[in-house]
Amino acid sequence: MRQKLLRLGADELTYEIRGIVKKAELLVNLGYDVLWENIGDPIQKNKKLPDWMKEIIASILKEDYSYGYSHSKGLLETRKFLATRCNQLGGVQIQPEDITFFNGLGDAIQKIYQYLLPTSRIIGPSPSYSTHSSAEAAHANNHPITYRLDPNNRWFPDIEDLRLKVKYNENLVGIMVINPDNPTGMVYPQRILEDIIAIAREFNLFLIFDEIYMNIVYNGAERCTLAEVIGDAPGISLKGISKEFPWPGARCGWAEYYNRTSDKDFEKLCETIDNSKMIEVSSTRLPQLAIPRIMSDPRYPDYLIETNKRIGQRSKYLEEFFADIPYIQFNKTNGAFYNTIIFKEGVLKPDQSMLIADEKVKNMLEGWLKPDLALDKRFVYYLLMAKQVCVVPISSFSSDLRGFRITLLEENEDQLKETLSRVRSGILEYCK
Q: Which of 332, 338, 336 is nearest to 308 (CA)?
């Protein structure tokens, strides 16, 4: 082209969660059935919305009111409903104007980072959900800045690592937290959150908390939201229905601004995010109409309890299949529906393999095994081609650790155990 088209940050826009699908589809084209463990889509894994929830959604479709635009910030009645729910927690108090809807949280994340100065950086966790890390790095034309999640301490944030990085990097303006966490499935207790907020307050930073999984907590884990502990610090909580109902195809998420007038720069950021949304007119209307009706239905709390109970049982299956394998480090998950399994240091080597009888499959795999390929990605490719299970390497989550993420989503118990059995046998065969 006459001029260079892309800025440097474009190289950071990678999404291995879906990228691995391209390779898996080549295997499908050869006639193989693949067990998909790459993405957090409950519907894909046989989760069905209850009939009462579908009936509520269907009834809304009969209302002519449901087919128009919504307010650019989202439907007022829904924002009022959500503000009331937040205020009932007894922490920070918000108004409907402090809530803005987006077409999924991916839309919100892009807009938050889009208008920040490239030199204004947000520090996030490592491992980190790649939508966050890629968007932040792309806006800065640089690699993401991260703090460590410690697999030796139940994947809790390394608070000292976070504090030192904030102290000695004056370009940092915000701290991003995912709670419950993706990809580790850990839930952070109140004391951890208070430590992070204290750092933000000490160095005059704002907070971004991705709380999309906040109502997916099990195994007796302590549930604590940002709203309950933020005090007077400025922050944004990101929430949605894609995982909770679940209704990922609705593309419906929202941001709650906390203490937005406490800092002029933060207030301007919130205003800019809203203005960018107004240019698009509005977010999807149907799911916004459904939120108050579904969440206020007396059947909803029991539905969440039963859903969490089932996911918690699957976390125990993972423990049964993986906790005794000597080559890996395993932490039982307590929230969301993922588990990050890490290989112990020195276990992975560039000459390991699994048996593949099909020559076409073997030749295809050999074409992917480049000399600079991350060792956990190499394992993931072998697991896909030898065992037909599609997982995501942890090196793709802004991490120096080597391992993979697996989901706890499969509703069919026999299918789940078959998947876990294949992964277990793949690890043992590869690392023997």
A: 336
Structure tokens given for 37: 């463990």
What are the CA-CA distances from residue 262 to residues 143, 206, 209, 231, 270 (Å)?
Answer: 30, 10, 18, 11, 12
Helices (H), 340-412: 359-366, 375-387
Delimit the domains of the chain by residue range.
8-47+301-431, 68-295
* DSSP structure class, residue 23: H
User: What are the backbone angles phi and psi of residue 237, rounded to the nearest 5°?
Assistant: -105, 130
In order of 26, 89, 256, 354, the CA distances from 53 in angstroms are: 37, 25, 25, 45
The Cα–Cα gap between 11 and 138 comes to 7
Q: Which residues contact 9 (CB under 8 A, 6 or more apart)?
A: 118, 137, 138, 139, 140, 141, 142
State pLDDT tens for residues 199-256.
Answer: 999 999 999 999 999 999 999 999 999 999 999 999 999 999 999 999 999 999 999 9
Q: Which residues, listed in sequence order, are joined to residue 149 by a DSSP beta bridge?
A: 157
pLDDT (0 to 100) of residue 21: 86
Q: What CATH architecture does domain 8-47+301-431 belong to?
A: Alpha-Beta Complex (3.90)
Cβ atoms of residues 219 and 198 within 8 Å = no
Tokens of 14: 């990678």
Are domains 8-47+301-431 and 68-295 of this chain identical in fold? Answer: no
Dihedral (CA of 209, 210, 211, 213) sign: negative
**Nearest-angstrom CA–CA distance, 253 and 220:** 27
Q: What share of the chain is helix, strand, coil (3-state, %, to 5)?
A: 45, 15, 40
Residues 397/129, Cβ–Cβ less than 8 Å: yes
Cα gap 227→136, rounded to integer Å: 23
Fold assignment, 68-295: Aspartate Aminotransferase; domain 2 (3.40.640)
Name the E strands within 119-196. 121-126, 146-150, 156-157, 172-178
For residue 271, how many C-alpha atoms fall within 13 Å in the half-sphere facing its CB?
7
In this structure, are strands 253-258 and 235-240 parallel, antiparallel, or unpaired? antiparallel
Q: Is 63 exposed, middle or buried (0-12, 13-18, 19+ CB in 10 A)?
A: exposed
User: What is the pTM for the complete model shown?
Assistant: 0.94
3-state SS class at 109: helix
Confidence check: pLDDT of 398 > 70: yes
